[in-house]
Amino acid sequence: MKTRDKIVLAALEQFNEHGERNITTNHIAAYIDISPGNLYYHFRNKQEIVREIFALYSNELLERFTPIQGQQESLVLLKHYLDSIFTLMWKYRFFYANLPEILQRDELLHEEYIQVQDKLQTNLINIMRAFVALDLVQVDDSDMRSLVTTLHMIASSWLGYQAAMSPKTQITEQVIHQGMLQMISVVKPKATPQGLEQLQLLEDGVKAIHA
Question: Domains of the chain (ranges plus CATH)?
Fold first, then answer.
């Protein structure tokens, strides 16, 4: 693995473990046993590393939430998107947990974030329309953006909300699963009988993980 990639992966691991604000470039360099000078050869500062991680996150986010073409079983489709939510929130949990602060101190990153979220919003609306076509949910087109925005808001702010509610909150897989259950609860009132049955199966599966 190239040194640049090692730096990015090490930073992601350390940010997730200890919080981005608590980790310096010296910590990252020591973690992978390179000199600070070697790190600065690849990245001028920590903010450049954060931007690189954000680029990885953005690519994975848009790839996972691009509407899937072709025939798919509805339960498989729902599970794919639910698993994607968990994977992204866990893999990049430092970003979700401290999003406002990270964006406020980097105008360029903030602009890139907004652009990515605009693309994501369009994809999510098309995904929801596909769920309507599969007779999983009943949502008028006039209500589509509002529902998608609510789900998007829960996903992007759930970890920050949990941290705000308790100073001792630890980001665990269980905390993320609670966010997924919250999103399912928002969709349930819009579900058809078939959709409700499948959402219940997903909900039961999430709950069983920590039973």
Answer: 1-44 (1.10.10.60), 47-209 (1.10.357.10)
